[in-house]
Amino acid sequence: MAFETSGRIIDISPVNQVSDKFRKREFVIEKKEAGGAAVFVDYVKFQLTQDKCELINESFLNEDVKIWFNLRGNKWERDGKVNYFTNLDVWKIEKLSAQGRDQNAPSDITLEDIPPENDELSDLPF
Question: What is the dihedral sign for C-alpha 86, 112, 14, 103?
């Protein structure tokens, strides 16, 4: 299932070559939402993997962006201890224009743009 959100990029990590076959890059957005008189700020970390690591670079820092991502989860066991990990895997990102893009405008994404969810990490029931 694909999700989308928007916010301002406040941190971009370098590409991390985890193994010979896997690399990732993480970044954080600041997402503000108004609730009555209060403003709530969330800091959300996303990741890009493999060839998607090239979707972002330092020029995105402090830019407002729109992000499309999949929710991923994984279970890891070692020495009888179980850990669960949740990742927000980005598959598309775009800068929002300085003029202020209409976020209610129809998206140009088609079903063919959404990557398949079936990979070596998607064997969980959600």
Answer: negative
**Domain total in the chain:** 1
Report if residue 33 sits inside a domain. yes
Going by the DSSP 8-state scheme, the letter that residue 27 receives in this structure is E
- Per-residue b/e over 5-29, b at no fewer than 16 CB within 10 Å? eebbbeebeeeeeeeeeebbbbbbb
Q: Is residue 88 part of a domain?
A: yes
Burial class (CB in 10 A: 0-12, 13-18, 19+), 48: buried
| pLDDT tens digits along 107-119 | 566 556 666 665 5
pTM of the predicted model as reported, rounded to 2 decimal places? 0.71
